[in-house]
Amino acid sequence: MLEVRGLVTNYGPIRALDGIDLEVMDGEIVTLIGANGAGKTTLLKSIMKLVKPLRGQIRFRGTEISGLSTEAIVRKGMVLVPEGRAILRRMTVLENLLMGAYISNDAAQIGPDLEQVFARFPVLGGKQKNMAAALSGGEQQMLAIGRGLMARPELLILDEPSLGLAPLMVQEIFSIIGHLHQSGTTILLVEQNAKKALQVSDRAYVLELGSITLSGRCAELLKRDEVRSAYLGESA
Amino acid sequence: MFLQQLINGIMLGSTYSLVAIGYTLIFGVLNLLHFAHGEVFMLGAFFALQLSLGLKWGLAASMLGALIGTALVGFLIERVAIRPIKREYFIAPLVATIGVTIILQEVATKLFGSAPVGFPQTVGIENFQLGPIGINTLQIVILSISLTLMILMHLFVSKTKMGRAMRATAENATTARLLGVKVNGIIIQTFMIASALAGVAGVLVGMAYNTISPYMGAHMAGKGFAIMLLGGLGNIRGAMLGGIILGVAETFCVGYLASSYRDAFAYGVMVLILILKPSGLFGSLIHED
Ligand SMILES: Nc1ncnc2c1ncn2[C@@H]1O[C@H](COP(=O)(O)OP(=O)(O)OP(=O)(O)O)[C@@H](O)[C@H]1O
Ligand SMILES: [Mg+2]
Fold first, then answer.
1. Which chain A residue lies closest to B166 (C-alpha atoms)?
2. CA B14, CA B27: separation in Å to the nearest integer?
3. How many domains does chain A have?
4. Are A146 and A117 in contact (CB under 8 A)?
5. Membrane-spanning residues where (chain A) (predicted)?
6. Helix-helix angle B236-256:B216-231, to 10 degrees
7. Is the pLDDT at A236 greater than 50, yes or no?
8. Which of A87, B36, B156, B251 is the S-S candidate for B101 at Cβ 3.0 to 4.6 Å?
9. Residue A160 sits in a domain of what CATH number?
10. Binary contact (A48, B178; C-beta < 8 A)
11. What is the dihedral of CA A100, A101, A104, A108, to 10 degrees?
């Protein structure tokens, strides 16, 4: 579904990504793990054209998309839920969700999709008319994810969806990721919570200082000592 | 007397509001002070004048013509002077709009002369007396057109999908892009709407004062800008109410103090409000990204 080859991105003179190869197949959940500052967000932004890569190819469902604008990429079915609760604070919860469905051509779909989001996140249903700025941090994160779902993405990219959430909510987010996977959505996930991410995903990539240093099936990576000590907080 | 002044002030102020809404819309999506907005207002008046004198169009048709004409002017300004300019050099787009101001003013003086010209009497004037308040047909027409446009604008921005996309872009263009909003399209649409509102305001002011001049834009630009500050940067409702506050302040000054102090008084009130409430009466809504 998504195929990244030789992606290089600089911030000014600083190399942030140094030749990334990454692939996400139809129906997979793929996790990207790495320390703070490794370049995970930069990689997602480069894929979405929020930052302009220096070189490299990005193919989505077989077509080259590196020449497209962010909005055109979104319209092709790839949706990023950015890190840090990028909600529209001056709009209501409902308006945020409706903006999620901005690219939808089927107005009849919006009502049922809203119901589904409210079923997944009951808190949001009760606060539809509230300003998004007045939500708690965790609620804002749920809104950001719910808004991503409203676009009915074929590939949903989540940048640290569980950041700053209470344990129960983290559990909830991962169970939603599981549900989405079962209903056929392909997911690319960036998570600090490496253990949970590796448990829910099919394959993973480890990013260190702008390069992929390790990749493979999660079941195997979970057994590797270097992964256990560096990302799962276990002594080798 | 008091009520009479109030009505007069609201009428005058509602034309200011139309101009200020445009300022604040453009500021909202681009973080740009659109210097030439006053000249678009002026062109609206001249378009209507040409249509009604030259082509003998009626009031409604001339006004519609001015609306469409100024929307196209807004389109051209965005295409020629805003989009090609790199926004990273934050002062560059501002300078570009100053350039457009000068060009539009010079073109208008070449075409229409620099002296004020009479604006045709467009409405048969009839006076009505409602108790102590006297109001005439012209005032009713001006007031209802500007209030209707404001209500439509409010509904557009708060209730429609396009209006939501415009607000999303104004709040955070990156987030809007990630939702699939074609931000460039929103910007051009914003310029067209803002310009059309200014164009209609130009016609209304021409009708109210019966004279127009190529320099009327500069005067209005100062007011529109001040109202935007008063209402809060990027705040549409603030621009609507701010315009009416300024109009009322002006007419009260003329009525109770002296007409020569009218601008000084109005701007004085505004400075006072901004000292007390620096983000404007209704809060600024500045672009985040
Ligand atoms: N806009 C920017 N300009 C310059 N350097 C940047 C910019 N954004 C990120 N960087 C740098 O690029 C590197 C990668 O940052 P990035 O945000 O991609 O890391 P990350 O893996 O997402 O980290 P985290 O887990 O903390 O979110 C860091 O060294 C960071 O300082
Ligand atoms: Mg990050």
1. A99
2. 20
3. 1
4. yes
5. none
6. 120
7. no
8. B36
9. 3.40.50.300
10. yes
11. 170
Q: Which residue has the tokens 């290089």?
A: A8
Name the residue with the closest Cα to ligand 1, atom 28. Answer: A37
Partners of residue A129 in chain B, C-beta under 8 Å: none
Per-residue pLDDT tens over the stretch B53-104 = 888 888 889 999 999 999 999 999 999 998 888 777 778 888 898 999 999 9
Residues A66-116 have pLDDT tens digits of: 889 999 999 999 999 998 878 999 999 999 999 999 998 888 899 999 999
* CB-nearest partner of B178 from A70, A90, A91: A70
Share of chain B above pLDDT 70, in %: 99
**pLDDT tens readout for residues B132-191:** 777 888 888 999 999 999 999 999 999 999 999 999 999 999 999 999 999 999 999 999
The answer to whether B174 and A50 have CB atoms below 8 angstroms apart is yes
Domain-embedded: residue A147: yes
Asked if the ipTM is above 0.95, the reply is no
Q: Which two tokens stand for residue A201?
A: 């995903």
A234, pLDDT greater than 80: no
DSSP annotation of B261 reads G
Place B289 in a pLDDT band, splitting at 50, 70 and 90. low
Domain span including residue A63: 2-231
> CA B26 to CA B93: how far, in whole Å?
12
Alpha helices (H) in chain B, listed in sequence order: 2-30, 37-49, 59-77, 91-112, 137-159, 161-171, 173-178, 183-209, 216-231, 236-256, 262-276
The full length of chain A comes to: 236
Q: What is the share, in percent, of chain A residues with pLDDT greater than 70?
A: 98
Q: Does residue A49 belong to any structural domain of this protein?
A: yes
Domain extents for chain B?
13-214
Q: Is residue A236 part of a domain?
A: no
CA terminus-to-terminus distance, chain B: 49
Q: What b/e sequence results for B93-111 when a residue is b if at least 16 CB atoms lie within 10 Å of its CB, and e otherwise?
A: beebbeebbeebbeebeee
Q: Find which of A41, A71, A94, A145 to mutate to test the B interface (most B CBs within 10 Å of its CB).
A: A71
Residue A31 lies in a domain: yes
> What secondary structure does DSSP assign to A115-160, as a single string?
HHHHHH-HHHHHTTTSBGGGS-HHHHHHHHHHHHHHT--SEEEEES
